[in-house]
Amino acid sequence: MENTSSNVQRIVITSSCASVVTPGLSEPRVYTEEDWNTISVQEVKEKGHEASQHDKYRASKTLAEKGELVSRDISRARVKRNVSCLGLC
Question: How many domains in the chain?
Fold first, then answer.
């Protein structure tokens, strides 16, 4: 298979509000790129397979999106690409 990664110019990630919304908060608020759902990630770390399905899903979305942002920052110096993250909340 031919390596075409150098031809990729833009990556679009369909985000989930699960990666930023903190379970249990009832106050309306505006979220920014500084907000992450750390509660669900911690629940899964502590409880493992005993964590709720909701926490597992939210933790997976949080870690995947944070991982892509780190990857983007690392590869930005090597490869010109644009990463867009669309929130679908």
Answer: 1
* Residue 66 is assigned to a structural domain of this protein: yes
Q: What does the pLDDT look like over 34-54, one tens digit per residue?
A: 889 999 999 999 999 999 999
Position 31 in a domain: yes
Q: Which two tokens stand for residue 67?
A: 């991982």
**86 neighbors 15 (Cβ within 8 angstroms):** yes
CB 31 within 8 A of CB 25: no
Domain that residue 20 falls in: 12-82
CB 14 within 8 A of CB 88: yes
- pLDDT exceeds cutoff 50 at 23: yes
Residue 4 has pLDDT above 60, yes or no: no
Q: What distance in Å separates the CA atoms of residue 79 and residue 6, rounded to the nearest whole number?
A: 7
Domain contains 36: yes
